[in-house]
């Protein structure tokens, strides 16, 4: 009863009706949970501090967002990799792209839309619906009312299961709206609990309510980043938990189910805080690595290229869009095609760029040392696929 209860419905299936947040009895902040909270807070603080010294941090954020989009979408069954989305962004007309790459592109658009809206619209049910509409626009699941909360019963389980055999049945629409109303009030409560505890509770409750017919997992994970940015815990959206959750997918789902079955919020929160700590440490190291790489490559360009201004301009652009064509490089540098081609060829010989299509025409080049930093962050099962 602490997290809710299963209630038999008129058509003879049992749906879970969640209890209101915060939990009652209150979260037991035992010694282990307090230490995990302290460690996660400190790690987040270091990550936020590193972001403040990054040269043009918004350029670097773009790659973190793409990595999160790939991993969060892979949790839900997409096959597209980081390499796929970078190639798609550089040339969306390519016929060799996986069919689900647009789902990942939509995730990036949903993330960026939410971040743009936060200064003018607080994290709310309205913003959740806007994010959902962006996420499912024109892709798999677009037939399931993008941007609208469900008006019918959904369920979770293996393919082909029914309401009677599902692993989990969220609340019916009427109870769902009551639970969402409580969730929105809890999101706006800035006094009751530490932000990271609140963040973990909100994510788990959202997944339990499952208010959309599709896309709940991805929206729920976006809420974590949005809340941390809205509360100014992070000045830049550099914390993404999908790496941690994908690598521990079975435990992720088991911890959420344990809340529903036995009201075990504490074990879920410990799992969640370990993730915040681990991912914060990893992201901090990546940010420092990128700063060192930028300085090394700027020095290399200044040393190896006589007229280095165009190459420096392209290098800065590559931190935001590391895959591009020569025509795109020409536009970035504001020079003739022959000049752009010469700069790209020189950077390729220096080992900073790699041609990735193997074609004679419509070639694409990639800032490989930079992309490799993020590919190495993929869970082990994905490394070969993403390389």
Automatic annotation (TrEMBL):
<protein>
    <submittedName>
        <fullName>Adenosine monophosphate-protein transferase SoFic</fullName>
        <ecNumber>2.7.7.-</ecNumber>
    </submittedName>
</protein>
<keyword id="KW-0548">Nucleotidyltransferase</keyword>
<keyword id="KW-0067">ATP-binding</keyword>
<feature type="binding site">
    <location>
        <position position="252"/>
    </location>
    <ligand>
        <name>ATP</name>
    </ligand>
</feature>
<feature type="active site">
    <location>
        <position position="210"/>
    </location>
</feature>
<keyword id="KW-0808">Transferase</keyword>
<dbReference type="Pfam" id="PF13784">
    <property type="entry name" value="Fic_N"/>
</dbReference>
<dbReference type="InterPro" id="IPR003812">
    <property type="entry name" value="Fido"/>
</dbReference>
<dbReference type="InterPro" id="IPR036597">
    <property type="entry name" value="Fido-like_dom_sf"/>
</dbReference>
<dbReference type="GO" id="GO:0016779">
    <property type="term" value="F:nucleotidyltransferase activity"/>
</dbReference>
<feature type="binding site">
    <location>
        <begin position="214"/>
        <end position="221"/>
    </location>
    <ligand>
        <name>ATP</name>
    </ligand>
</feature>
<feature type="domain" description="Fido">
    <location>
        <begin position="123"/>
        <end position="274"/>
    </location>
</feature>
<dbReference type="InterPro" id="IPR025758">
    <property type="entry name" value="Fic/DOC_N"/>
</dbReference>
<feature type="binding site">
    <location>
        <begin position="252"/>
        <end position="253"/>
    </location>
    <ligand>
        <name>ATP</name>
    </ligand>
</feature>
<feature type="binding site">
    <location>
        <position position="210"/>
    </location>
    <ligand>
        <name>ATP</name>
    </ligand>
</feature>
<feature type="binding site">
    <location>
        <position position="76"/>
    </location>
    <ligand>
        <name>ATP</name>
    </ligand>
</feature>
<dbReference type="InterPro" id="IPR026287">
    <property type="entry name" value="SoFic-like"/>
</dbReference>
<dbReference type="InterPro" id="IPR040198">
    <property type="entry name" value="Fido_containing"/>
</dbReference>
<keyword id="KW-0547">Nucleotide-binding</keyword>
<dbReference type="GO" id="GO:0005524">
    <property type="term" value="F:ATP binding"/>
</dbReference>
<dbReference type="Pfam" id="PF02661">
    <property type="entry name" value="Fic"/>
</dbReference>
<feature type="binding site">
    <location>
        <begin position="215"/>
        <end position="221"/>
    </location>
    <ligand>
        <name>ATP</name>
    </ligand>
</feature>
